[in-house]
Amino acid sequence: MIYKHEEARQYREINFLDQFLEGHDGFIAGGCFKNIFNHEKVKDIDMFFRNEKDLNDAIHYYTEKCASDANHIKLVYKTGKVVAFIHIPSKTQLELVRSVFGEPEEVISNFDFTVTKVARYVVDGEHRIVIHPQFFEHLHLKRLVVDNTLNFPISTFERIIRYVGYGYKPCLETKAKLVDAINSIQNIDENDFSKSLYEGLD
Predict the structure, then answer these.
(1) How far apart are alpha carbons 14 and 194 in whole angstroms?
(2) What is the pLDDT of residues 88-142, one digit of tens each?
(3) Which of 56, 85, 60 shows the shortest CA–CA distance to 73?
(4) Structural domains of the chain in order of their starting residue, each with its CATH number
(5) Which Pfam families does the record match to this protein (predicted)?
(6) CA separation, residue 184 to residues 144, 155, 172, 200 (Å)
(7) Helix/strand/coil (H, E, C) string of 54-65?
């Protein structure tokens, strides 16, 4: 798959994300972009990192912000996979993912659906966006398309159920791929229902 790397400033709807890319070298990726381009309220933003050092720097940055400006940023919770802060003015939850590392394109290529395969990042001071070439088409059609290997088919199944509640529908190929992937699992137990790339709210 050839992703598009573009100047982020041309997408004016996402310029407000700049404030969340200050003070650290992380990048924003995932489902918040479908909300933004659908003109829906963004409840949470997933931040990813190229390596553990960048993650730790970001955790330190936001922890310091909590101490210096408690009316602006507050720590919400920590798990083995996520450290979450709340941006109080916008009531937006910032979820720092600590279970997945990589470059923006590498990270989004492992997401389930094309409507989540977008990342906003900064390189050499320039704000960039990497985006699946069919993102806007599938977003407009509210179509769920899985275009890569299903690493956690049970988790994908759970996400599909949630997205159907938002008005999205899986395409025929995605349905077939999901059925094949689930059928290939020898033994399904309740632990399979908690496996995913990260524990987020998206």
Answers:
(1) 31
(2) 999 999 999 999 999 999 999 999 999 999 999 999 999 999 999 999 999 999 9
(3) 85
(4) 4-133 (3.30.460), 142-194 (no CATH)
(5) Gad2 (PF26128)
(6) 21, 15, 19, 26
(7) HHHHHHHHHHHH
